[in-house]
Design goal:
The structure is a homodimer. By secondary structure, chain A is α/β, with parallel strands linked by helices. Chain A has helices at 18-21, 24-31, 34-43, 67-81, 99-108, 113-116, 170-194, 217-232, 238-243, 253-261, 282-290, 293-307, 309-313, 323-337; strands spanning 53-58, 87-93, 120-126, 139-145, 195-206, 269-278, 346-354. Chain A has a 7-stranded mixed sheet with strand order 3-2-1-4-5-7-6, with helices on both faces. The longest helix of chain A is centred in the middle third of the chain and has 25 residues, at 170-194. The radius of gyration of chain A is 20 Å and the shape is globular. The relative contact order of chain A is 0.16. Residues 1-7 of chain A have low confidence and may be disordered. Chain A binds chain B through residues 49, 51-52, 86, 88, 90, 95-97, 99-100, 102-104, 107, 119, 121-127, 133-136, 138, and chain B through 49, 51-52, 86, 88, 90, 95-97, 99-100, 102-104, 107, 119, 121-127, 133-136, 138.
Chain lengths: 357, 357
């Protein structure tokens, strides 16, 4: 039996602003995808009325990583709109996301568009993007970075790992593969509904590189080895580890294009551009320069901690707020920091366009 | 010296959904104000385009008290709009509001408009309504209940109480009076900007009755007496109590109308209707029926706890997350529950309209 309960949805990013502070890896991929968003902002059709131009940020987490792309999009739009027309940004994430951190970031960070543009307004939607969460035909420009790799739920237990890419279990691999295909179609279908005619959506997500590699191998090996040690010394049970799974997937170029193959478009969307590329391991570059293996380990551990630890800890008896979650947290951080090696970071950037009518 | 630091802003309602569970007093005043909102929804001008009709809920807290009014407004609008046109609800509150509780309530509560209306969408804005937080001319219908009695900041210490209405200190009373007048004008000015031409805003707020009474007298006397006992036994210091102040005000009919006196309108808004009325003490009615003084006390204590304890506890050395906040919390709850007496609840309901051009 590898079927997980259907309520088994992933946890949001670590709260209290922690994700904001520990997302430098994500920032690198974002910088490499910004030009796509700026290009979209320069060319997307804009209605001639006075109604707000809506930018949607799907999967914003606590907002830090959204500042640069949204600001860039607004600047590009302003060249066409002038300074008066309202731009209304909507940040979406799961209901349990730390929206207070998001709003504080938007208010206080000097890089926030709220401080740079007097006719820009902000709002948030705490609902899963695997449903329609914004009005039909309302979004001129969509952005989603490091978000759609998170599945809507854990479709199965992964008996021999916490990341399906490194599992050899055929049923688990098949279940994840099916869920990944279904979730991608669901995501596209609702965005196709929400985008305005001619609207553009830029997606940055974890990918599989040309050899099918998911990346982060040393990190994930250390993570799983640490969990095995914790089982060994009795700190956590086999059953708890069995339940643990990070419901993220890397999608190959073929996976990402699959919905578009039959008809050339899907849900009114066409894939204008898709590139699988390699994110720079910024922590590795730091390490080459300073030789500080402790810092290298701590940085990758913080990356891991901010993004996936809440989901792993939620599989503990007592849940992710129980006292053993703290132990797990500490040990995992030590474990993943112990043996620094360079990481590969396969990413995909994609530009989607909705048909004009 | 009664001048408090300018960063001395009130805390949001108690988190983790507590305010949702302890706001029955508020619900009574809301029910008495609903007809105003429904009337506004039936008569407010609506643009003939396809763009979303925006309803703003200013000071939503965790959403529970917003469900009935927003649902009523949507039903009344639907009779005019039909089922297709998008209605976009925006709930606003302070950045530290518990937005996760808000979104869970909106998703799960059977009374949520999201479950009742397929063309209704939701979003939240975590910014103070003492600034412009929504686009100019964007709001068709505004609603604000139990919110604008909260000042933008504590303008002064209150040396002899925590609620200025029961202070005899002239400088404190004057400072609060000035702040209340300024904040009301600020609130109106920005809503005047945000409302669409012809748009309507319904406000329910704490008031002073015709004799100038703020109400809740037994509750606030018990609250202050408990604080004095805590000073007596050394649990908290004089200085901490000196810093404590609940920055809420009741406004008289004259206070609420003051901005409109000179020109008949203010910031494009006119006061179409204003009624000061007496909210029913539902806990007192329960007590008359069941004679359970313990339940009466506990209910009023919970009311007090959910709304003002976070603000009081923030004046403790160590802040409202320190261990002494728990002690304060427990003792205050006991204190206010000790001597149940009927409460008066002076309220004001008001309908404001923006000029059509």
């Amino acid at each position: 039996m590898t079927q997980a309960p259907p309520s088994d949805i992933p946890a949001p990013m670590e709260g209290h602003g922690a994700y904001n502070r520990s997302s430098r890896v994500q920032a690198v991929g974002i910088a490499a995808t910004l030009p796509l968003l700026e290009q979209a902002a320069r060319t997307v059709p804009i209605s001639s009325g006075v109604e707000p131009v809506v930018i949607a940020d799907y999967g914003s987490s606590q907002g830090h990583n959204s500042l640069a792309p949204i600001d860039a999009a607004i600047r590009a739009l302003r060249e066409r709109l002038g300074p008066i027309r309202t731009i209304w940004v909507v940040h979406t994430d799961l209901p349990d996301n730390d929206f207070s951190a998001l709003f504080h970031t938007l208010e206080a960070d000097p890089a926030s568009y709220l401080r740079r543009d007097a006719a820009a307004f902000t709002s948030a939607v705490g609902r899963s993007f695997y449903g329609q969460i914004l009005p039909t035909d309302s979004v001129t420009l969509g952005w989603s970075s490091w978000a759609v790799q998170w599945l809507s739920r854990r479709p199965a237990a992964i008996p021999d790992h916490v990341q399906v890419a490194y599992s050899r279990h055929p049923a688990a691999r098949a279940a994840y593969s099916r869920q990944a295909a279904a979730d991608w179609e669901t995501f596209l279908a609702w965005r196709g509904r929400e985008l305005a005619p001619g609207g553009r959506l830029v997606v940055l997500t974890m990918a599989l590189d040309e050899s099918g590699e998911f990346g982060y191998r040393p990190l994930l090996e250390a993570l799983y080895a640490t969990l095995m040690e914790l089982v060994e010394d009795g700190s956590i049970s086999h059953e708890e580890v069995f339940r643990m799974a990070i419901p993220t997937v890397g999608r190959s170029q073929a996976d990402l294009l699959a919905p578009f193959v039959a008809k050339g478009s899907f849900a009114g969307l066409s894939a204008e551009l898709l590139e699988v590329f390699s994110g720079e391991d910024r922590f590795g570059s730091d390490f080459e320069r300073d030789g500080d293996s402790g810092a290298f380990g701590a940085r990758w551990a913080a990356f891991c901690r901010a993004s996936v630890f809440p989901t792993l800890a939620s599989s503990l008896d007592g849940g992710r707020d129980g006292p053993r979650a703290v132990l797990l947290d500490e040990r995992l951080e030590k474990g993943v920091g112990a043996a620094p090696q360079p990481m590969t970071i396969p990413l995909a950037r994609m530009l989607l366009a909705k048909s004009r009518s």
